[in-house]
Amino acid sequence: MVQSENQAAAVHAPRMGARRIYEALKSQILSRVYEAGSQLPYE
Predict the structure, then answer these.
(1) What's the domain of life for this entry (predicted)?
(2) Which of 1, 13, 20, 33 could form a disulfide with 28 if both were Cys (CB 3.0 to 4.6 A apart)?
(3) How many CB atoms lie within 10 A of CB 29?
(4) What DSSP assignment string belongs to 2-41?
(5) Confidence band (pLDDT; 50, 70, 90) for 13?
(6) Signed CA dihedral, 18, 36, 30, 33: sign only
(7) Does the CA dihedral 21-27-31-35 come out positive or negative?
(8) CB contact set of 40 (below 8 Å; sequence gap of 6+)
(9) Residues 6+ apart with CB under 8 A from 16
């Protein structure tokens, strides 16, 4: 069976929707991982 390019990419790297990113950052900010005015880390 041949997988389409989109299906193969989804298996290897699950997509993080904007809502999940927002919730993750909000959780980290509320738990004081980041200080007010600090920049987010680059990956």
Answers:
(1) Bacteria
(2) 33
(3) 14
(4) PPPHHHHHHHHS----HHHHHHHHHHHHHTTSS-TTPPPP
(5) low
(6) positive
(7) positive
(8) 25, 34
(9) 24
| C-alpha–C-alpha distance, residues 40 and 26, integer Å | 12
Q: How far apart are the first and last CA of the chain?
A: 35
Q: Amino acid identity, residue 2?
A: V
Report which residue type is found at 21: I
Total residue count of the chain as it appears in this document: 43
pLDDT over 90 for what percent of the chain? 9
Q: Which two tokens stand for residue 2?
A: 């041949």
